[in-house]
Every structure is written in C-alpha cells, then in structure tokens.
Automatic annotation (TrEMBL):
This is DUF192 domain-containing protein. Gene3D superfamilies: Protein of unknown function DUF192 (2.60.120.1140). It comes from the Bacteria. Coiled coil: none annotated. Pfam families: DUF192. InterPro entries: DUF192 (IPR003795), Saro_0823-like_sf (IPR038695).
Length: 154
C-alpha cells in the first residue's frame, strides 16, 4: 500500500513538471494577443507575436519574406535598459518602436534596411520593442509619447 502511494506521488510530480514545462515551451515566443497602439489618429489593432526568450529575441523576424499588414513582433527584454537591434538576415524593412516599461514610445527607427548590420539603438532605457512592417509607424501616425497596450505590458 505504501509503495503504491509513493509511486502515485511520483507519477503526479512528473505530470506536474511536464505541464509546467509545456506551458513555458508553448507560450514563450508564441503568438500573442492583439496589441493596441494609441496615436493622435486613433486606436490601431496589431496582431503580435511575442519574443520573450533569448532564442526568440535573437531570431526575431529573421528570414521571413513577408509579414501581414497590421502584424508585428513585440520583444520583451524583461527589464528596462538600453537595447540595440539590427537587421541581420531580416529580409523585410521594419519600423522599430522602442517602448518603456509602461508601453510609452521612447523613440522610433523607421524603415530599417534589410540585411544591415548597423546597430539601431533605443536612445534610452526601454523594456519593449515593437517591430512593424516598414512604413507602418507613419501610417499609424506613431510618435514618441504614444502608447501601446498589450497583456504583457502592465
């Protein structure tokens, strides 16, 4: 009886570890919820993928030949600090919105050149970067001080 109870506990512990591991594997770097960018021209819904692990941030939008309009990738650096981006192996031009810990735009880099190894700095401490198709920031009327809302941004 005692051996059976111990075996059942061991099985339950293994199942719990597998469930927790699966949660992190299938949620990090995955499709995220809709983000809302609020600018002077209104509220703009953007479907975002989340890059919140070292691997997903390192890969980003590399090697993609296109991205649908009103889609993007939201990078979460987990802490507020200066960051730098680049376009290595990135085929499509991108706009990069650098955001503080509350989702406020600190600065914007527009139409980053595909394949460029030039460093694109955040111009100050940020926690998030939203990458959009080149020209999208202008189309949305995005400016420093505008705000992005998303479930991962407090």
């Amino acid at each position: 009886m005692l051996a059976s109870l111990k075996r059942n506990r061991a099985v339950l512990a293994i199942i719990a570890v597998l469930v927790v591991t699966a949660y992190f594997v299938f949620t990090s770097g995955s499709q995220g919820a809709t983000a809302t960018l609020t600018t002077a021209s209104g509220e703009h819904a953007i479907e975002v993928e989340i890059a919140d692990t070292d691997a997903s941030r390192e890969t980003g939008l590399m090697n993609r030949s296109s991205m649908p309009a009103d889609h993007g990738m939201l990078f979460d650096f987990k802490q507020t600090r200066p960051v730098a981006m680049w376009m290595k192996n990135t085929i499509i031009p991108l706009d990069m919105l650098f955001l503080d810990e509350r989702g406020k735009i600190v600065n914007i880099a527009t139409n980053a050149k595909p394949y460029s190894l030039d460093v694109i700095p955040s111009a100050g401490p940020v926690r998030y970067v939203l990458e959009l198709n080149g020209g999208a920031a202008s189309r949305y009327g995005a400016k420093a001080g505008d705000r992005l809302r998303h479930p991962i941004i407090p």
